[in-house]
């Protein structure tokens, strides 16, 4: 999904429920070991590259259609186009329904695995046991002259409710009725409060089957209407019912609102309602209060810069219309006393506008105005947006301050309130489902019990470190099992720099001393560091580094009384006085581009912690990986297979270039990796230069292995269900075409990884509920018949409810059987070298995320190619 800020439930309607104008005259903001794999080549179609959806059409016109394309010359014969259905809601295309399973012959009859111990699970889904059995009738609704405000459109239509009945669903553009109107096209006349005449044209569009995606979308709108009937408070896109009071944290008053996220969808065997508990954290502090606090603490010359630094990119809430906005800028040249043109051409001040429109009184006349560019959407960078101007006094801060995030006690208190255990989450959802009155008009009934289904628990992978084989414990961890065992591939730490800021000498000595103790059992030979004191600002670190090159032989004066010869620097550690991002970014950019060498930045207070020895052990492991070593390997039972992870970073704060991270394994043991970044246009998700990345990865593979890989498995993170066809058309096609140009013996699989989902699973123990153990696979009931998909719970959590990960195999010429792809995916969750435990996604996928994030947040340009075979981004 989101980033990734997109609809959490497929097919959910965009809300058009508020009548108020946003801000001065601007548009609304959008809201165990097994047998080795027998590889089998299965022909798989790819569509011709082209537009995913047709251009936007005027409101009221139908755009649901089948998208067809010609096959590309040179690809395997007999290609068939994938089934693609487009739906448009309120002028915005929704998720595309793509049948990616249809042509995978190896899973055409069954996509269910059999490996593992069967367990009984409960999901946060309620089965729909009764719903309208007959067809529904969809009508397009057009207003002349056009009416933009969604609430006003509903009011004008309701003036004729006797003609179409109480039982109806209206989404702002279309009307769904259980019975047809007498005529296919009718015209009604409505009157606004100021006596203006509006003509409403209602024209028949089509009949909808009860299980059609379009009909299910209307049912989701209907369910959201029940929230309004129950007087739930709308904040942004979601509804909230219960306010949880909090004590003051670090001088900031907070409150938490608990609500629900729902979606009704057709799954494997039935329609279900997915319901999950949602929390919204609000600060009882206006943006004006926040600005005033910064002004009181900051030098007047730097005040505006500091306000912009701390405010731009944050999310604010306007309580007069319960909407959230991202702050994209601050207009210091305007104030509430300024005027703007209304839609009818008349001028009005911001003070009068908010008083008339929202009954809000502005008392501070000297405050600046906030600028919001509306919702940032991937793939819609060409859409013209007019800025939205907001009054700081009327906006409330959301989220946590940096001070609260750094305070353990405060974060612990918040976790208790927001991270619900499986037992508490189950009870909250049962209570929620007691209210269904409005749905009965449409004959909607839900099972009162949560959905029961079966899962399977896979055995943990065999992990090899040194000469020992271990397995993860019940929590998916093995740190204790490998304690004191040499690493799989230790790298000596000989010529290395240790730079430390002023007043950090004691911490530098502590770090080196602890490193000397923890590296010996790992098998790492370590010499004394070249320790150099710097001023502590960003430039002071790079100024020292500029004196050295990897080929230079120099005499360096170090800590008092020491003198060393430095040759071929292999690693740099920088101890930072504070966690200032600008200093970190400056150092990382220099050491990843100008002077490419693996590095580690450590904040002073980290070394001062009681558990510093444990932390420095992890730092030593990171250093070994960054220099090209390996900690452990996992038994996968596959040969000559390259695993690739792809993810993208989007700068939604500054809206800079997007960064695509590409990471590929370059040996059979999955202990060596190649990485590359692709810098793309802002908001661009699909990667255009995969051929270049793949070629470079294959070249590195051939340097490490005696022969080319036979199969390539790609784990793609960061894309939504609505991008599946585009992913096939562009990224999968790029790789398939390139591989076929090299040899016909290559096979390829593309797997979409989705973390941001609302589905949760509970393991029932007597009358209690707990989290499933790591390795739990679900490939029944809540999967889609059109997809080759499954869920895996691959990690454990100490607090709250664990979130599973959804996997969707959208392209496969390898012939991956369900047991094979599920076991492989879980094995790869053991291979992330930053943690001796299982993680939520396969390691190549998370490596790609770490790479893209580092480059996007700190480096902002391509790293030097000399680092491409090192895990420098850990």
Automatic annotation (TrEMBL):
One of its GO terms (biological process) is cell differentiation. It is found in: Cytoplasm. It holds the Pfam family Piwi_N. It comes from Saimiri boliviensis boliviensis. InterPro entries: PAZ_dom, PAZ_dom_sf, Piwi, RNaseH-like_sf, RNaseH_sf. The lineage of its organism: Eukaryota, Metazoa, Chordata, Craniata, Vertebrata. GO terms for molecular function: RNA binding. Residues 1-74 are annotated as: Disordered. Keywords: Cytoplasm, Developmental protein, Differentiation, Meiosis, RNA-binding, RNA-mediated gene silencing, Spermatogenesis, Translation regulation. Residues 286-399 form the PAZ domain. Belongs to the argonaute family. Piwi subfamily. This is Piwi like RNA-mediated silencing 3. The keyword Cytoplasm applies. Residues 571-860 form the Piwi domain. Its main location: cytoplasm. Gene3D superfamilies: 3.40.50.2300, paz domain (2.170.260.10), Ribonuclease H-like superfamily/Ribonuclease H (3.30.420.10). One of its GO terms (cellular component) is cytoplasm. SUPFAM superfamilies: PAZ domain, Ribonuclease H-like.
